[in-house]
Amino acid sequence: MTDLAKRAAPAAEASPSTAPKERPRLLGLDGIRGVAALFVMLHHCYLLAFPGYPENTGPVWAAWLLYGHLAVVIFIALSGFSLGVSPARHDWQLGGAKRFAHRRAWRILPPYWAALVFSLIIAWTVVPQPETPEPTGKSVLIYGLLLQDVFGSPSPNGAFWSIAIEAQLYIVFPLLLIVLRKLSSIVMLTAVTVVVTWIGVLAPHVSVVDLLIRLTPQFALLFALGLVATGVLRASERVRRLPYHWFALVAAVPAFGLIASNGSVWTVQHFYWVDMSFGPAVALLLAAVATGRPVWLVRLLDTRPLRSLGSFSYSLYLTHAPIVVAIHAKLVEPHVTGTVATFWANVALAAPVAIAFAWAFSRFFELPFQRYRSWGPLRAAIRARF
């Protein structure tokens, strides 16, 4: 018997009562990630074809593609939910701040830094991002340190702005958990809501507070809402049976009402409040999907194409913008006339390339860091492969 077989034998011989129980996978969450990443990519295809953002210069049927920002709202709430799943199942215990910080850095930084290098190469050798100067050495430093929402510099990638916010939310996540565990989810959510609301109210009148808007503090509320939504996993069966999908639909009415009644320019100028109004609907939808409802939607989200797309959605989010911009500038814009035709050409040419590239990118820079949680196992796997 080999050493590997000897180590595996005790686990294989363990009785069902002593073997560790695997937590069931929450169906549908990967599908939500995949749909959100696809939405952001289509949003960028749209912006390149129909200039004038935030003015709606495109056809009515495509107006929804103006609001790719809302996909980031979904990502942030989903991030809070995903990080909250394990603590929710363990009495809201984090399992160690140091371990949490290592796992988050290990998960997001290697793909991000690889995508940063890729984005800089495209910006320096092919085409920079639209309406943005060519990245500089300052860009490399600021984006490399995830400080792009604090200091301004030419962007190498139009999708990178939210990654810094995500990283900053990881810093406050342990604090949110402590308040939730020691007091309650209501106290935690109320505290975050009060702080974020007052920042939004005071920002137009107090210059120091206005500086905080660069950090998009409303995302802290979305993140907290996602975290609170994981409470459904530890709730009683009666609470779990509540029709959260219908609650989500009702909660979405105010946000969509604001957008429909005020138009795209107002919406973009007031994303702070629109995001906050949209957040509860997203959190309720996540709670619904986590409890398996509506069944048809969960089944759709868990179909193989959407589940697969969700498995490398982070890579797609990180790498699609330079590809879409480069294909538009070099292949579509010189040869296609008409805005609608340009949009469909962007989708037909850039979207498949971006998806295929993201899939390959994830195999090298994302999935290995999910499978192996430290350098030792990762190096061993690489040596065994080559």
Give the N-terminus to C-terminus distance in angstroms.
25 Å
Low-confidence region ranges: 1-22
Assess the beta-strand content as a share of residues.
under 5%
Number of helices: 18
Query: Could you give the count of β-strands?
Result: 0
Inertia-based shape:
globular
Helix content: over 70%
What is the averaged pLDDT score?
91
**Element-level helix/strand string:** HHHHHHHHHHHHHHHHHH
Gyration radius from CA atoms, angstroms? 22 Å
Main sheet: strands, sense, barrel:
none
SSE class: mainly alpha
What does this structure look like?
It is a single chain. The chain is an all-alpha fold. Helix content is 71%, strand content 0%. The protein has helices at residues 3-13, 29-49, 69-89, 97-125, 137-144, 161-182, 185-202, 207-210, 218-229, 237-240, 244-269, 271-290, 295-301, 304-311, 313-332, 339-365, 367-371, 375-385. The radius of gyration is 22 Å and the shape is globular. The model is unreliable at 1-22 (pLDDT under 50).
Briefly, what is this?
With 386 residues, this protein is an all-alpha fold. The protein has 18 helices and no strands. The N terminus is likely disordered.
Protein traits:
mainly alpha; globular; 386 residues
List the helices and strands and how they pair.
Elements: H1 3-13, H2 29-49, H3 69-89, H4 97-125, H5 137-144, H6 161-182, H7 185-202, H8 207-210, H9 218-229, H10 237-240, H11 244-269, H12 271-290, H13 295-301, H14 304-311, H15 313-332, H16 339-365, H17 367-371, H18 375-385
Helix pairs in contact: 2-3, 2-14, 2-15, 2-16, 3-6, 3-9, 3-12, 4-6, 4-15, 6-7, 6-9, 7-9, 9-12, 11-12, 15-16
